[in-house]
Amino acid sequence: MDTSLGQPNLTKYARYIYEKANIYLVESDHAFITYSIEKDTCMIHDLWVDPEHRKLKIGSVMADHVSSIAKDNGCSKLVSTVMVNSNGCEDALVAQIKYGFKIIGSDSERIYLSKGI
To answer: In the chain, where are the structural domains located?
Structure first.
């Protein structure tokens, strides 16, 4: 797997989370997404967009980018969670469902989602 993500100048934080937790970080001017890959599954850990840039499909663009990386690394599905007690959890769940994720389960803290790629 390409640990540079095609980005020759990763931030210190991106290098840190990869070193500590094997989690990748992709940043743009108005958003970031973190993810990890294990076998045929790409787990999206976090996706955040500046509040003033939400509803502009920046999150979808970031997710498309990670989906492409995941496919290139042999993944066949994306998985994600929504923390049920977090700020904006309803918006996060709606956005993921609109992107094509399906709810596959839940517990007292999280809703689990999956999407084929």
So the answer is: 12-116
Burial of 25: CB neighbours in 10 Å, binned 0-12, 13-18, 19+ = buried
Relative to beta strand 102-106, strand 110-116 is antiparallel
What are the pLDDT digits (tens) for 47-78?
999 999 999 999 999 999 999 999 999 999 99
Q: Which residue has the tokens 């469902």?
A: 97
What proportion of the chain, given as a percentage, has pLDDT over 70? Answer: 93
Residue type at 12 in one-letter notation = K
What's the CATH architecture for 12-116? 3-Layer(aba) Sandwich (3.40)
For the full predicted model, state whether its pTM sits above 0.85.
yes
| Largest pairwise CA distance in the chain | 40
Q: Give CA–CA dist 55/46, Å, rounded.
A: 17
Q: What is the CA radius of gyration of the chain?
A: 14
Pairing of strands 41-49, 110-116: unpaired
